[in-house]
Design goal:
Layout: H1 14-71, H2 73-84, E1 108-110, E2 123-125, E3 138-140, E4 147-149, E5 151-157, E6 171-180, E7 189-198
Antiparallel strand pairs: 1-2, 3-4, 5-6, 6-7
Length: 206
């Protein structure tokens, strides 16, 4: 008659099972964190691209206004004169850790949906107290208006505006700035550029 052997250690113990479950949970948590980081990185890249597109659109509009003013100062001069009148002698601090802290004094954007150089709707003032920032810089064209969200333009001439005698500037630097709250970041994201446009009126000074 065959004797049945007593296997005292057959199967997994409770401790071994709990250890296996702990390892599985750890792997799952690490995988989820890695996936979230990858999604945040992709989202951040997309938002940076959207910000760059918004900046480039404003830059092209400024160049068009400048070139049109050179072509016909009487016919297309209103928009150019409006933006250079917003000149600053000093720019606010940038970048900032909080978009609500950004100084938008005399800031503006161009209404590219109603881009008519012969009316007063092309240049739109930006609210300096508006702290609302979307997930990416944009201009809201709803209700037939243009409202800047996370994007603005400041202009600085090449001279000291506090001087008693103010000569005609040689050029204007247009600082196009953006600020938004990217996912997975505790501080605001920002992107900016500067374009220099030479003053068409400089050559007329005697």
């Amino acid at each position: 008659m065959q004797r049945i052997k007593n296997h005292k250690h057959a199967g997994d113990t409770m401790g071994e099972g709990m250890f296996a479950i702990a390892i599985f949970c750890m792997v799952m948590i690490l995988s989820i964190n890695l996936m979230n980081n990858s999604l945040n990185a992709a989202q951040s890249t997309l938002e940076s691209s959207m910000a760059r597109n918004a900046i480039d659109a404003q830059a092209e509009g400024l160049r068009f206004i400048h070139d049109s003013y050179i072509l016909d100062k009487e016919k297309y001069g209103d928009a150019w004169k409006t933006i250079v009148e917003k000149s600053l002698d000093k720019l606010g601090e940038f970048p900032v850790t909080d978009c609500g802290q950004a100084d938008k004094t005399k800031a503006f954007v161009l209404n590219l949906n109603n881009f008519d150089l012969q009316n007063g709707n092309t240049v739109v003032d930006v609210d300096n107290n508006d702290s609302g920032t979307p997930t990416y810089p944009q201009i809201d064209y709803s209700d037939n208006t243009a409202r800047a969200l996370g994007i603005w333009v400041n202009v600085v001439p090449d001279l000291d505006l506090d001087a008693k005698e103010k000569p005609t500037p040689n050029f204007y630097d247009f600082h196009i700035r953006t600020c938004w709250n990217a996912p997975g970041k505790n501080v605001a994201s920002s992107l900016d550029t500067v374009i220099r446009l030479y003053n068409p009126d400089r050559g007329e000074e005697k």
